């Protein structure tokens, strides 16, 4: 009897550990720790305060880029226009400051308004015309990219309002302001998805749209809301990017689409919908920035950076599929065991 109880206790403990390590945020955090140790061993400058400050700033912007993608993934959609949308917002901010002479707060409102309007446009076309999110956002990405080229003519806007770079370049007690903003946003979204009606309705829409409709949820409204939020987070990322860089460059957003999908997938927010993992996305943003930073530190060929990012994304998506297969196999085994015990 004692042996049996010891075995049961051991099985329970191992089950708990398995449950912990099965969580995406835990595995990503472990990957961050392991990579930190590896890069620190290969480069003396990796763990300097200056380098960690820069990593944190970039990762914080990646968080907002990922949230812009993750929020539409929650409802079972996607936003491939995210990068072009970000570029358009940056150009509007730069044009407003340099050519129209507007101040910081009007420029912020212009940026946020552009993001919300672009997200609303995507959401309305998807729901009212019953079109696939991929097709719609692919089309609008070309529209936004064309506007970027037409307005900017390929030139950067360097006459940015004084003190606009305060948030992007300053810190509080050694912690970047960008990271503080990202942490507050993540905390808010975790609360929203766990405890608010809106959050639960967004998750329900992504989990099963038909079932959500049957339970009285206006799924079309949820899809439009998710796309508006996507535009809002894209605008915040664009504003923070300009604040960090100190200029508005029309090339901004060229790599945002792959970053958004990579951070979302690695962080454990299901691309198929119905799942949101804020902490996972936060750690995944740091992981991606550390990989890019570490490749530079070890003198890897930066011309292959997009290849590395693509491989990371493919690996992350593959891991999610492997996890799903393993979970399905485990469920089958448990059912068989229960049937045999009966």
From TrEMBL:
It is found in: Cell membrane. The chain crosses the membrane at residues 26-49, 61-94, 100-121, 133-152, 172-193, 223-244, 256-276, 283-302, 308-326. This is ABC transporter permease. Pfam families: BPD_transp_2. Keywords: Cell membrane, Membrane, Transmembrane, Transmembrane helix. GO terms for molecular function: transmembrane transporter activity. GO terms for cellular component: plasma membrane. It is a multi-pass membrane protein.
